[in-house]
Every structure is written in structure tokens, then in C-alpha cells.
Amino acid sequence: MTNFFITATDTDAGKTYFARILVRALVNRNKKVAVYKPISAGCQLVDGVLINEDAQYLTVEANCGQTIAQVNPVAFLEPIAPHIAANINNTLISLKDIELNFQQLLNFSPDITITEGAGGWRLPLGSGLYLSDFVKAIKAKVILVVNMKLGCLNHAILSYEAIIADGLECVGWVANCQKEMPFSSENISELENLLPIPKLATLNFEVDIDKAAKLIDLSPFI
Domain range for residue 87? Predict the structure, then answer.
């Protein structure tokens, strides 16, 4: 089993879109894939259960028969920073619980686990902890989704450097081009020169998930 963690240069950068099509691509290759969205903030209350849309997308794509609670054990109603949401709900985000919930995924005997982060690499959990501490604990391989917009070069390089400084392997990056950016191709070329890791995909918005899945370089996963 190999563990992968998807992070990004900032929030709303395309992590879920990439995670969905990556899981679809791996399932299409007959891989058994378990998914994990340890923390979400911004949910709907459905029959007394907090449902996060991103986590629901991942649950549908995976093929281990996971429940939404197993995919997303920590969920908050408010679309705000999770540690602030935890504070106003008089609770704490436990790094130990996040790790224990992840370990339960092993009961499904997956070939690959795909974990989608929240926000960027240094998402605060409170009490001086970060979600990146969880990634270090499980020694996951990291994929960096770059939101192609003005400022992305700086964001991408700093994020990559932080991942490497944490002693982790960043196996590739993804150019997410769902928003218009002047000189987008030039910026992508610059990142290809600056980041010493392969570009796994250049993505525009594609409704057909199977078609989008064919755009991903799966060499780090197969």
C-alpha cells in the first residue's frame, strides 16, 4: 500500500477536482483506492449529519465502500479556518484522532490511499500543530496542486520548499488552469524549470471525469 497526500498552494485551488479525477484514473486501472478528507469546514446538515461536498465527491469515486464519516471524520458547518471553527464549537482538533481514523482505512486493504488536505500545506490545527504534522506521521508522498494565477510562482516554490524541509517526498505537481490567467503557458513553463519534480497534469475544467483522468501522468502511482 502507498499513501499519497494532495496539498495545494492555497484554498480553493483545485485539490478536490484533481483528487476526483486521480481516484477515477486509478480505479479505472483496477486499483483498490481508499480516500480520506480528515478535516473539512463548510458543510450542509443532512438528516443530522454534516456533509462536506468535497468529501462526498471523493466517497463516490473510491471503491472501498467507505462511509462519508470514514472519509471525513472531522467536519464543521462554518466555511472558515478549521481551528477557528473548532474553537467556536468548543472542541479541539486532535492530531492523534486524525491518525487513528486514517489507520482504520487499512482495514479495507487498499492498494493506494489518497488523502486530500484542506487549505495549503501549513493548515493550522490549533495548539501549535499543523495538518502537515499528520502527513509527516504517515510518511505520505505529496502532490502539489498549483492554482495558476498571479502569485502562483512564489506560492508554489515556498510550498515545495516547506514540504521538502519537512522531510517528505513531493512526487509531482499539477497545473490547475480553471481560471483565466494572462501568460498561463509562460508561467507553467517557468514552474517546470523551477520545480525539480515532474508536472503530472495540466488541467482545465472538464465535465467528463473519465476524459480528464486520461490527462494525468500516473507513473508515481502505478
Answer: 3-213
